[in-house]
Amino acid sequence: MTLLRRWRLSHLSLYRRLMIWLFCPLAMLVAIMLLQAWFASREAADRAFDRLLDAASLSIAEQVRWQQSRLWMDLPPSALEMLATDAEERVFYALYDAQGHFVTGNRSLPSLPPAGVGQMSYGDVLSRGMPLRLGVLRSRLEGWDRSDRFEVRVAQSLEGRQALANQLFLASLVNIVIIAVLAMGVVLLSARFALEPLTRLRRAIRQRDPRTLAPLELALPRELAELRQALNELLARMRRVRANQERFIGDASHQLRTPLAGLSARAELAIRQSEPAAWRDALVTMHGTATKTARLAGQLLSMTRLNNPEAAPARRSVDLAALAQRCVRESFARHYRHGIDLGVEVPDHPVMVSATDWQLEEALNNLIENAALYGARQITVQVTDAPTRLIVTDDGPGIPESQRLLVLRPFHRGQETGDGTGLGLAIVDSIARAHDTRLLLQTANPDHPERPGLCVVLIFPTDH
Amino acid sequence: MRRSDLSHRPLRLPRCVRRLGVVWLALTLALTAQAQARTLHFAADTEPSRALTIYGVLDAPQVRPLLSDFHRRHPDIAIDYHNLETLALHARVLQERDAPRADVIMSPAMPWQYQLANEGLSSTVDSPAAADWPSWARWRQELFGFTFEPIVMVYRRDLARHMTPPQSHADLLSLLRQHPRMLDHRVVTYDPRRSGAGYTYAIEDARISARYWDLVEALGNSHSVLETTTAAMLEGLSQGRYWIGYNLIGSYVQDYVAEHPELVMVVPKDYALVLQRLVMMSRDAPHPDTARRFIDYLLSASAQRLLATQTTLGAVHPSVDGAGTAADLRDRLGEAIRPVQIGPGLLATLDTLKRQTLLEQWQQAFDNRPTHADGPLADPSPLPDAATE
Asked: B335-355 pLDDT, tens per residue?
């Protein structure tokens, strides 16, 4: 397992990968070349030295004649000397007649299968423990009355040809090594050049001010230009996110400053007065403002929590019907006091969705609160099965179609009247996004122009 | 004609003899006439002792200074030196080829010694001295020519009263042609049919010059006497039976002439064959270490100086000069020096058919039969078709 991991190429740097993929074939190529050079040099040395066997046996064969009713030969010493090069090989020769009988020679030598018409056959033999290169020349007497066949066999030890082969191989080896070193140099250089834009890109990224989100302006090859574009798109998204955050923070501080300034002014006014009745009025007002501000702060907090991408709360299987009933039950009394008719319609069986229950509760509470704050008299919470939907319908003033997208942004209020914080629907939108649900804003009662009402639908994905 | 007691073979070889020479004849390079001890032994002076066995063809007076000097330098080595005749040595080495008893083999019979090495019965001597040995005097690092012995002519001092003594082969030929009567039965040389050494010189002479055959013919015309040993020729010359001796071994002549002032030695000026004693270490030698040491010693400057001064064998080592060295002979004779090449050409010398061909040709030239009067290249028994060409 660890071994596998160690060998996994994805861990290696691009440079190493390139090196491996270039050097492995290069090494194989070099090995093949060396092998080929080895065989070629053996063959060349054999060819060169076989010429000597050829010449020596021809020169011996020339001296073969018929004399005293037998094969006769006046062995020329030069023929034997020809066979010994600077390597001072051991030299053997023998003359055989047509029947394969030894006529003369300094050692009996084996025969070889014929190679072709008029051609000498060569072979490596082991004679009395001595490795020899043997050449066999088949010839015949050229006379009017006798044309006996005979065989001249000559052999030499291998020192000379081995020395030549080694010398040839060494020369090829030097060439191959030089070529390999050059190739390696070229590979190293080209890999460096090819990867240089990557280094530039890395440097450019590293040298950037960490606070800047400006797009990268860098001339890069096509493959990296795509990467740069993707990076720039990401940067652009981050810029937008940061702009949103900055605006949110600005709005939030503005929203908090206004009630706090109000509280401060009201308190100051009350201090100047001496009547307890005026104090009480001031306190009531201040209480209202403080409550509102507390809710605002609470909503800001939950908004921040929801927008934090690092914190993805675990989802569980939640019974949507039970959740709707619970929420309505908890807030029923409060709304009833203000004369709001809050109702719930759920199927008589559990409707299960995968969700974070506190977030769904918060969304539902926000929708109910929102409807109440904007003057609804009647609020209905519905849960339907297939498709799984959570619907909150009210009979309030509704939201004109042109405003419906805008109200989802934080601190945008559909109208300046009412006590809303401007965060309710934004929070619902965030929760909907987090649960992959579709959020629809519809007119609840289009026949009623003054109070068209609002119908907010959360459609859960079908696989839940 | 004086017959050597060592020669007893018929003139013509039996046909199918291929193992050269046991039947051949007693090779007569060793002066066996001077009866010498067949073995020399030097016991080790220190313990532990190591052994060294040498087969050689070198009589005690020549070999003793060498061995005792070596023994002085290496007192821990017990030396056994066996003095053999060349063919006996060759046969013995072949006979012991699977379990050699000799560590070092020295022989002046160059073709025979070369044949042993070519067969792989020698082994490489890896030493700086062996590697630096002149390449013309060695074969691989296995066979080393450690002496330098010219083949010479000898004449009686009183010959000058009748004619200009010969200084070269050409001189000898013209003398024989000008004074065939006066020199009748007065010239002595080796019989190549009965002496291995004589045969070797004949084949080398024939390779060097085609005029050799004219010389053989002239020798035959004046009924030259054929001997089988240098010693016999020297004896005859000293006794006045012969006036001129042709192709004698210089190293023996030198000694003899020193004691016999009536004789003069001549190294031929046109070309002088040079014989080299070849030394090799046996393959699978029982004592390779001592063998290597001995060969190293033979090739050392000190042993070579000793060869030049205390023996008549002649030194090869390039750094040794003065009388009795290769350098000295080369200085005096220059290009005329023809050492017998240590190479595969020597194998041709041992070829049975080659030998028969050459001996027949020699015999015909010597006997001066009319059919062969037209020169050395005439075929003794020409093929029918060859005659028509």
From this structure: 888 899 899 999 999 999 999
CB contact under 8 A, B348 and A67: no
HEC string of B347-377 equals HHHCCHHHHHHHHHHHHHHHHCCHHHCCCCC
**Nearest-Cα residue of chain B relative to residue A64:** B353
Is A70's Cβ below 8 Å from some Cβ in B? yes
Question: Cβ contacts (< 8 Å) between B343 and chain A: which residues?
Answer: 80-81, 84, 88
- Per the CB < 8 A criterion, the answer to whether B251 and B314 are in contact is yes
Rounded CA-CA distance A331/A367 in Å is 12
3-state secondary structure of B312: coil
Strand partners, A154: A93, A135
B21-148+276-341: CATH topology = D-Maltodextrin-Binding Protein; domain 2 (3.40.190)
Chain B hits for A97, Cβ within 8 Å: none
Q: What is the mean pLDDT of residues B307-323?
A: 88
Task: Check CB contact under 8 Å for B344 and A128.
Answer: no
B315: DSSP letter: B
Backbone angles phi, psi at A90, to 5 degrees: -75, 145
| Residue B102 in this model has a pLDDT that exceeds 90 | yes
User: Is pLDDT above 70 for B383?
Assistant: no
Determine, yes or no, domain membership for A353. Answer: yes
CB B265 within 8 A of CB B257: yes
Instruction: Express each pLDDT in B66-87 by its tens digit.
Output: 999 999 999 999 999 999 988 8
**In whole angstroms, what is the distance from residue B237 CA to residue B221 CA?**
20
B235 has pLDDT over 50: yes
Report which secondary-structure segment, H or E, holds B246.
Answer: strand B244-249
| String of DSSP letters for B263-300 | EEEE--SS-EEEE--EEEEETT-SSHHHHHHHHHHHTS
State residue A227's pLDDT score.
Answer: 87
Per-residue confidence (pLDDT) for residue B386, from 0 to 100: 27
**CATH code of domain B151-272:** 3.40.190.10
**What is the average pLDDT across B357-377?**
71
Q: What percent of chain B has pLDDT over 70?
A: 85
Quick check: B351 and A75 CB within 8 A?
Answer: yes
Put simply, the answer to whether A90 touches B139 (Cβ < 8 Å) is no
- Are residues A298 and A241 part of one domain? yes
How many Cβ atoms sit within 10 Å of the Cβ of residue B7?
Answer: 18
Nearest CB to A73; choose among B140, B349, B353: B353
Tokens 């030549």 found at: A164
Predicted confidence (pLDDT) per residue in A387-398, tens digit: 889 999 988 888
**Residue B51: pLDDT band by 50, 70, 90 thresholds?**
very high
Residue that finishes a domain, picked among A140, A167, A194: A167
Please tell me which of the candidates B118, B345, B383 has its beta carbon nearest to residue A81.
B345
Distance, CA of A248 to CA of A410 (rounded, Å):
7
Q: Answer whether residue A10 is part of any domain.
A: no
Chain A environment of B139 (Cβ under 8 Å) = 88
Q: Is the pLDDT assigned to residue A360 strictly greater than 90?
A: no
- The number of folded domains in chain A is 3
Residue that is written with structure tokens 């939201």 in the block? A399
Co-location of A19 and A162 in the same domain: yes
pLDDT at residue B141 tops 60: yes
Lookup: tokens for B319: 């750094």
pLDDT confidence tier of residue B302, bands split at 50, 70 and 90: very high
> DSSP state, B187?
E
CB contact under 8 A, A81 and B120: no
Q: Which among A75, A91, A104 has CB closest to B18?
A: A104
Mutant choice from A59, A70, A88 vs B, greatest count of B C-beta within 10 A: A88
Which candidate, B247, B231, B252, places its Cα nearest to that of B187?
Answer: B247
- Looking at the fold, whether A91 and A70 belong to one and the same domain comes out as yes
Alpha-carbon A256 to chain mean position: 48
